[in-house]
Every structure is written in C-alpha cells, then in structure tokens.
Amino acid sequence: MLLLLACASGSPVDSASPASDPVPDGVVAMTDTNNYSYTLAMDIGATELTAADNDTLEWGALTTDMQGFAVDPAADVDVIDLVWFRDLTQAEVTDAIVTGSLVQSSVGLLARGYPEPGETDSLLSRFDVYGTPFLPSQYLTEPGGTWLLRVHTRTNPSAMLHFLVPGIGGRTVHIDDTSAALDFTADLSTLTPVTLGDEPRVSWDALTRDGRGAPIDPLELQELTIGRYDVGVAELEGRFFELESLAAERWTVNVYGEESVDLRDAVSDAGAAFTGVDDVSTWVLALRCIVCTTPSPGYLTLLR
Q1: For residues 202 and 27, is the Cβ–Cβ distance under 8 A?
Q2: Which of 66, 80, 146, 149 gives 113 a disulfide partner, CB atoms 3.0 to 4.6 angstroms apart?
Q3: Looking at 183, 210, 229, which one is the last position of a domain?
Q4: Is-above-0.90 flag for pTM?
C-alpha cells in the first residue's frame, strides 16, 4: 500500500557531477537562482495511551488545520491514519516529514479509519489493517518505533498530526488545533524571475537544490502548475498555503520523469491550454511532488 506520508527519495544529487547537455534553442533553462527559498519547522505533540481495545480518538475540537484553514470536524474529516515507524524516533519522523525524506521501508504498519458523516470520535479498534481490525491491545504493545496519527480532510491529506505513545496513560486521544504546529516562511522576493521566450518552453534539468537548499531529486518533480494572480508577491508570501485558492487562473501538466515541457501543454480545469503571461498579473510556476507530505513545492519561481 502506498503511504502518502512518504515520498521515497532517490540518490542524493551530486553537485560535482558533470554538467548536463546544453539546453536546446528556444528552451528557457530554470536554474537554482530562479528558485524561491523557504524555512519550515514542525512541532508535533504526543499523547500517552494505555493499550486497550476501547481506546478512543476524539477530534471534535479540531477547527483549524496546520496550514491555518478552517475545519468542520463533523463534515471535513474523512480519513485518519495511524502509522507505526519501526525504526524511527519522534524527532526523526518529524525531521523526515519536514524534509520530505520518509521512505516506505520505515513503515511497519498502517491502520486506517473512515469516520461516518457527522462523527467526531471513533474507537481505534474500528480502524482497519489490511482488512482486519486494529486492536490496540495487540498492536500498541510493539516495542520501540514511533506511532503517528494523521488526520485527512477533504482538502488536506495532512490536516493534523499527532504522536501516540503506548504506556501508562489514558484511553482517549484528543485531537485539536494545538495537536501540532507548523512554522513556515517563504521568500519569493529575492529570486530571479524566469523570462519566457516567444515559445513558452522550459527545462529544469540544471536544478540541483530545492527551496530549502537541499539536494533535489528530479523524480520528486511530478507536476507543474502555473498560476495567474491579481495580488502582488508580498501577499503571496504571507498567504503561501492559499496559492491554489488565490489564483485567478491555474494550469497544470504532469511532468513525471520529464526534464522539460512546452508550457502550452498545461491546461486549466476547464480544459483551456496555457497561452503565455502578461505584464499586468503576477505569474507563478511551481514544480511539486504530488505524493509527499511536505506542504511546499520543491521549485517555485515567478514568470515574466
């Protein structure tokens, strides 16, 4: 089963590797100098829980997710995961989520719950492990490792996170707005915008670093998105997690396994092809991993 918490990393990028082939005529190279920068920190709380089959999870007090969006706990929560990382500490899990470096091999068990509409609590024994019930009295006795709860909503697959610690604790886990905290800042002001040519074709095979300055894995650049905005760069920085909803228009194209694309292949939700940028709106291009937890694209730039 694919764990959407994880995005398996490939081999680290070697900054000393040979230079790539020259970019073909008419194709604009997107480089590290065009990329935005960001900082991301996460603080995930923990609850100690007695391993009993009547252990209960409650999320009725969850009204805001980690990115600041409103949550209706009775209507929006549609899936809850409980993941056991067999060989990672809480600090290591947190760091791997921030860096997008969780790998499937670290997962020892995945239990999943599906709340009914209107529910704001559930017995953990209602969760499912590959077709069988999850029994806390059996599974929460596993020695070592780290248990992580992840709350999905209809619009955010990582709306809230929280650690479970088997031990001498209570039998109820309360999930609310303080169960985890996300600290994020984005800098779109100091990058060098990408200037498109007469034909809007771009290449990213020269990229070596993501927005955090870490080596970038080309296989994690799976979707390209172009957004047109009627607000300026400063507002986009302050409302970064609203980039999708703030866009006056958006175009997307799947670029998995590619290193270049003709932007005219990107289409809007209505099926209209991208035709180019103007000098009136703010234009943003992003390359992102669509199966990673990290709430920020690896590459994001402004278009001119």
Answers
A1: yes
A2: 80
A3: 183
A4: no
